[in-house]
Design brief:
The chain is α+β, with helices and mostly antiparallel strands and 104 residues long. It is built from four helices and two strands; from the N terminus they run ααααββ. The chain has a domain of 50 residues. A two-stranded antiparallel sheet has the order 1-2. InterPro entries: AB_hydrolase_fold.
Length: 104
């Protein structure tokens, strides 16, 4: 499990991570990136060993239910109009945000 998670975290491929049917051809000792330490990998491995990927998959399993539920709440949502003003003050841009709340 640790080897697979290391490969996922250190991959530079833009494609989604996957495990080939025949497994990985080679099992090189993957070097971790500068921002990733062995503790982080061990934490991910321990969480995966406990629960697997069910949390991430459950979001997609319930996506239709989520969409239908939020469409019912559409009339109860508040619309927010935001005006953002930038002004230069002592060489820096200062951001001022005004929010105008409007209910349906």
């Amino acid at each position: 499990t640790a080897r697979i998670i290391k490969r996922f975290l250190t991959s530079r491929s833009p494609r989604p991570p996957c495990i080939p049917k025949g497994g990985f051809r080679t099992s090189p000792n993957t070097t971790l990136l500068a921002w990733l330490c062995e503790e982080d990998v061990n934490y991910s491995v321990s969480k995966f060993d406990n629960r697997g990927f069910t949390g991430g998959l459950n979001y997609y399993r319930a996506l239709d239910l989520y969409v239908s539920f939020t469409s019912l709440l559409k009339s109860y949502l508040q619309k927010i109009m935001v005006v953002m003003v930038l002004k230069k003050k002592s060489g820096y841009l200062e951001v001022i945000v005004y929010s105008l709340w409007k209910t349906n």
